[in-house]
Amino acid sequence: MEILNNKGFCVSLIDINRTRMNKLVKVGLHPRQIAWGMSRICCEHSPGTSSKRYERYQRQPQNVDLPELLPKKKKKPFPVPIKKMLQASRQDKRLARMRIEKPLEPPKNGLLVPELIPVAYEVLDNWKVLIRGLSQLLSVVTVYGCRKCPQVHVGPVGHQIQDCYGTGSQRRNSHHSWVRGSVNDVLIPIESYHQFDPFGWRVKHETRFDYDRIPAIVELCIQAGVELPQYPSRRRTAPVRMIGKKVIDRGGFVDGPKPHCSEDCISLLAELDTFSNQQGQSSTPLNVEELAEKTLKAYLNVRRGVARLMRKYTVKTCGYCSEVHVGPWGHNVKLCGAFKHQWRDGKHGWQDAVVDDVIPPNYVWHVCDPTGPPLRSSLRSFYGKAPSVVELCVQAGAEIPEEYRPMMRADVVIPDSEEARLAA
């Protein structure tokens, strides 16, 4: 007899010993010999096939839900627990009251980390490959963007899922108003201010036009050791010294050199910015599948490299909007228009950033069969989602990465509209 509990463990009852004994019992006037059969039963636990199936599902689930969308009237969660932040703040205040210098390690003291310089160059090279590949794949795979809301769809035709919340959505029954998209719809541009000295003058609201806006990934690579002639950066030989939150020695304030403009610099900047790689400017690739695999590999390498750099280098993001700043402190530009910005006088609520703040995944609906009918609202519970870059490369012929397969629900069979109501 086997019993299966809710966790997949198999419990069996096994008869391991059976004996027979005789005993004299008086029945009436004559004694008689009666035999009893006795058995010994023990409980045994054995992980059966259901347990192995449960463990295999835990390692590679069939479908995974996306992270919950945070409401706009709520601040982003802190990547570091508040208790640890308060503990570190109290430790800094204790050292500051004792006039003890705060111990800083590279790159917190302004010096470079030598082992991360090759990582920064690798991230920048993969970033160029990613932008160039997306601009070429857009001539093969069609991308649509809604004119009324920020949703994007990758496929030959726009989907018919009624989830538009833009202007006039009630008149359109929440249907989207699709138009042809570009690289910026697939890879959301996140820019930040470039500073010659991140530990120098802070960017103020009055001086915001004195600084260039470049992709946050490029600025992170520059501060990690990449040398670009168009955007020079100060390389310190002496560390920055601090007591608490006050800088006592930064080596003085140094103004940045004048920008050096040349044809090489202009061509280099065209490779780093998504605005200069719009649809229609790149030719159709010869080997589409190879280009899709190369582009998808570059995207995954960029995310891994940025995550590795952000473990050491400080990147700040606003807790209410999508603004990102690369450096030890956030800027003082008053351009935040998110929830309760009047209470903050338009200033951003800075906190530590995560990889998704620097490279937003921009999830889109996964289309299993691009040649089939468009996606419908009645079957939306069976559809999966994936980052727009991954979906674009997969439709171009690339293999689905294992980490995104449960999210895309590649192993889920989509039923017909008549069979959907019979599905559990």
Describe the protein's architecture and organization.
By secondary structure, this protein is of the alpha+beta class. The protein has one domain. It has 11 helices and 15 strands. A hairpin with a 2-residue loop joins strand 9 (241-243) and strand 10 (246-249). The longest helix has 23 residues, at 288-310. It is globular.
Short summary:
The protein is of the alpha+beta class and 424 residues long.
From the structure above, extract its key features.
424 residues, three-stranded antiparallel beta sheet, 27% helix, globular, alpha+beta
SSE arrangement:
Layout: E1 2-4, E2 10-27, E3 30-45, H1 49-59, H2 82-97, H3 117-137, E4 143-146, E5 152-154, E6 178-180, H4 183-186, E7 191-193, E8 213-215, H5 216-223, E9 241-243, E10 246-249, H6 263-272, H7 288-310, E11 315-318, E12 324-326, E13 350-352, H8 355-358, E14 363-365, E15 385-387, H9 388-395, H10 405-408, H11 417-420
Antiparallel strand pairs: 1-2, 2-3, 4-5, 4-6, 7-8, 9-10, 11-12, 11-13, 14-15
